[in-house]
Write a structure and sequence with these properties.
By secondary structure, the chain is of the alpha+beta class. The chain has helices at residues 6-15, 30-39, 74-80, 85-93, 108-112, 115-124, 156-180, 188-198, 203-210, 214-228, 233-240, and strands at 44-51, 56-64, 100-101, 128-134, 141-148. The relative contact order is 0.12.
Length: 250
Amino acid sequence: MELVQESDLRVLLDVVADHPDSPADQPLPDVVLERVAALISCDNVSFTDFDAVRGHLYADQDYFLDAKATGVDEEAFLRHYWDCVPCSYPDRSGDRRSVLRISDHLTTRQWHGTGMYQDYFHPLGFEHEIMLCLPAPVGRNRRLILFRGPGRDFDDRDRLLLTLLRPHLKELYQQRERARDALPDLTPRQWELLRLIAAGQSTIDIAGQLFVSVSTVRKHLENVFIRLNVTSRTAAVARAFPIGADSLAD
């Protein structure tokens, strides 16, 4: 039996469809969180951007299916973050591509014995979690998290759908971030080229990695210079990555 049906894929594409009317200050359009909840059954979808070391919360969006599930205790989350293996795993391992559940790390008994569960999850009525990480600057965490109450845990279908959704959410987030920072809307290939330049790659090296000719790389670079209104590689990288190229890495 196939994990993902054709109908799932149609809903998945709808999740990241164009949302031109969404407020610019939302990291992701609220309707995206709503559509994720329609794609994968859950009680809450949350997008969060935080620095666990400094204890700073940059963004926190929630779509609650149950309006009574409010009063999130962010202090409890940050207090127990480093002691909670499922929560801090991306920081500790460097693995920000895997889509993971709490049950990938802990048994139910172990989970119920944690401070994170007792002080943060249980008061909200949440039992299960599945987490997707997006690229972020060093020290930051950007995550889309789905929560469920008691009952069925998230399964392989849910993990696969979020894995398929991740590159689209990444692109959507970065488009909105560039728009907020008033950066030109470069093509994916042009951003790829700039990341390689920022990593110190030569024109010949880039041509080999992208499987194109040196002249094609030069033409791409020429178009990038025009869009960014610069005349050098150094200026292009500084203009494209004002807070560091790592913010757009995978």
